[in-house]
């Protein structure tokens, strides 16, 4: 797209489209192919697919780098972790997505890496732990406790040390945080969440503004086989077109609900960073009551995913891999775009029922 001053919402709508020639479609077509005619392009579908390109172009433009699509968020995460040299130290949040922590802990058990878990909100502590690290892995906000990191300060010091910084930007999206501009080397997304936005696809992505890093991750994707489906990329591109509209509405709902939950009897420990679509809180009556709360709702769906147009919630410690420091009675609420009064009525009615 022409114009370096375009707003993110305009980029989300307009990037990644075919050239405007007479008779051309406005949307990039879906290419379903595993084999290609030999020549200058790819030989096999694990190397490339034209359907990946629009998604990667839009997300890369929004993040300020070059994007690579993966079959899932975990596929993207493990591709980055595979770049850590054997025996290298990884610093990561002690409260983070359970899949990420499990992948790190499994590598540490096999002596592939040295793992140091930190409080990401403690910048001094992060930098102290990362003095000789190969990689600093950040979530900001963290899942599900919604702690935030000073990405800029951590990245600045890490750059001087030659330590790579990767940021899981799934909760924030590039519309609320652009880690590459803050000095990070890599950004990772579970595009199944807010980017896709409709709970109908499984997709991940890595974004970087470094040529060497891009080539290394691309090689891991090809050799590791975590390549995305054409349909998933096509759907995610369509989801990106409305990200700014969905995010604004869901964030407004989340802000209102967080304020009301803070004053609601029977609820405590409300966590909300002031932006985004995720609110976490604790049910005073305990973990069993927290589980029953999520099962009693009519409007809010009881489900483990997040970032869709529909609101979902769950008690996070029902998962065996969830970090033990996460309170047993904590509920993570992913706020959607429904009417906020309907959501509030559903929350208060469900709480009364338990």
From TrEMBL:
Which Gene3D superfamilies did the record assign? Answer: Aspartate Aminotransferase, domain 1 (3.90.1150.10), Type I PLP-dependent aspartate aminotransferase-like (Major domain) (3.40.640.10)
Q: Does the keyword RNA-binding apply?
A: no
Q: Which UniProt keywords apply?
A: Aminotransferase, Coiled coil, Pyridoxal phosphate, Transferase
Q: Which Pfam families match?
A: Cys_Met_Meta_PP
* Segments forming a coiled coil: 240-267
The family note in this entry says:
Belongs to the trans-sulfuration enzymes family.
Q: What is this protein called?
A: Aminotransferase class I/II-fold pyridoxal phosphate-dependent enzyme
């Amino acid at each position: 797209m022409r114009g370096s001053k375009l707003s993110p919402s305009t980029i989300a709508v307009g990037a990644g489209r075919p050239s405007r020639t007479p008779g051309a479609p406005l949307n990039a077509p879906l290419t379903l192919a595993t084999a290609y005619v030999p020549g200058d392009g790819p030989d096999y579908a694990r190397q490339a697919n034209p359907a990946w390109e629009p998604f990667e172009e839009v997300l890369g433009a929004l993040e300020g780098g070059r994007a690579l699509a993966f079959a899932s968020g975990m596929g993207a995460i493990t591709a980055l972790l595979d770049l850590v040299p054997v025996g290298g130290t990884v610093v990561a949040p002690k409260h983070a997505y359970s899949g990420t922590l499990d992948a790190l802990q499994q590598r540490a058990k096999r002596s592939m890496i040295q793992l140091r878990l930190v409080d990401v909100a403690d910048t001094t502590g992060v930098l102290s732990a990362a003095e000789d690290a190969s990689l600093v892995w950040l979530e900001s906000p963290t899942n599900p406790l919604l702690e935030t990191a000073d990405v800029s300060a951590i990245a600045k010091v890490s750059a001087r040390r030659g330590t790579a910084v990767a940021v899981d930007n799934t909760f924030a999206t590039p519309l609320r945080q652009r880690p590459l501009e803050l000095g990070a080397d890599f950004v990772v997304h579970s595009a199944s969440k807010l980017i896709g936005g409709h709970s109908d696809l499984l997709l991940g992505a890595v974004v970087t503004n470094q040529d060497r890093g891009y080539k290394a991750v691309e090689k891991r994707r090809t050799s590791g086989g975590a390549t995305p489906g054409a349909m998933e990329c096509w759907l995610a591109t369509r989801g990106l077109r409305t990200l700014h509209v969905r995010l604004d509405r869901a964030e407004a709902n989340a802000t209102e609900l967080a304020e009301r939950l803070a004053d609601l009897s029977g609820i405590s420990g409300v966590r909300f960073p002031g932006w985004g679509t995720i609110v976490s809180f604790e049910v005073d009556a305990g973990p069993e009551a927290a589980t029953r709360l999520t099962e009693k709702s009519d409007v809010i769906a009881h489900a483990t995913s997040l970032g869709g147009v529909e609101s979902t919630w769950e008690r996070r410690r029902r998962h065996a891999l969830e970090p033990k420091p996460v309170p047993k009675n904590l509920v993570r609420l992913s706020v959607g775009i429904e009417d906020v009064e309907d959501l509030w009525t559903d929350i208060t009615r469900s709480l009364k029922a338990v």
